[in-house]
Amino acid sequence: xxxxxxxxxxxxxxxxxxxxxxxxxxxxxxxxxxxxxxxxxxxxxxxxxxxxxxxxxxxxxxxxxxxxxxxxxxxxxxxxxxxxxxxxxxxxxxxxxxxxxxxxxxxxxxxxxxxxxxxxxxxxxxxxxxxxxxxxxxxxxxxxxxxxxxxxxxxxxxxxxxxxxxxxxxxxxxxxxxxxxxxxxxxxxxxxxxxxxxxxxxxxxxxxxxxxxxxxxxxxxxxxxxxxxxxxxxxxxxxxxxxxxxxxxxxxxxxxxxxxxxxxxxxxxxxxxxxxxxxxxxxxxxxxxxxxxxxxxxxxxxxxxxxxxxxxxxxxxxxxxxxxxxxxxxxxxxxxxxxxxxx
Length: 343
Known about the structure:
The chain is of the alpha/beta class. The protein is 32% helix and 24% strand. An 8-stranded mixed sheet has the order 6-7-8-3-9-10-12-11, with helices on both faces. Strands 2-1-4-5 form a 4-stranded antiparallel sheet, with helices on one face. Helix 5 packs across helix 7 and helix 7 runs parallel beside helix 8. The longest helix is centred in the middle third of the chain and has 18 residues. The protein is globular.
């Protein structure tokens, strides 16, 4: 079995505000394999971005605080390590592509300077070679006239160009992991397709593992190897992309997929998930999706369902079995797993 490049266990993040404590991330655990493309999906406020920003301690502290959890990367815990050591990993061995490149890029510095800055901090590339490397990176992400663009400022580039620059910066030091936080949200459809194609090609060329955060299930369908579905600050389902789309095991995942038009399901009506996302001001004491779930029953209001393995490679946090239309007891999961292994 391949050793994960990143292994996260029981991550909990809170924000202490004047209105109360926001329980943004509530015990998230997952791993990322070498060269894997991991999709993270869910509604706004489900904890996707906060989870990934917490790994690199990019959340504002205060009001944010990482209460517990570990994130092992190359034998080191990103959560507990010294902040100076973490800075050597951020932008070096782990790249981060932010959602809005216009606010992420420094408006008074040239594109070339900002790309070279990462090279100055994280590599031993001689000064004369940095500009050449920056130009190569811009060419790699498909920016025309790359040499001239090095002298441009962010406001002189289009939205698609700026996002390509962000990808180039994330790739500057040949990172082992890239985290992309909804990098195509503000772009039109044609530019989205180009950015997605660039990331797919770069992943194949360089073997970099990618975590792609999005609310767009259509994007993930053509990119990801595996998908994490988040709701209420927790992972509610984890599965390889094809089984997830073909046969979702969590009611929330089923609702999300039902709300997306699909060519392979002609004549089917789109699903509307009724109700509102949960308030995160209170720590969940029951299933967060219960108020919106058509399958909820008494137990769903009394306990928080654990994330357990239902099938090899598939984890679900639900007390209901969608396939058999009956109650499911997560406590039986280890016993079922042993029986399958013995057989």
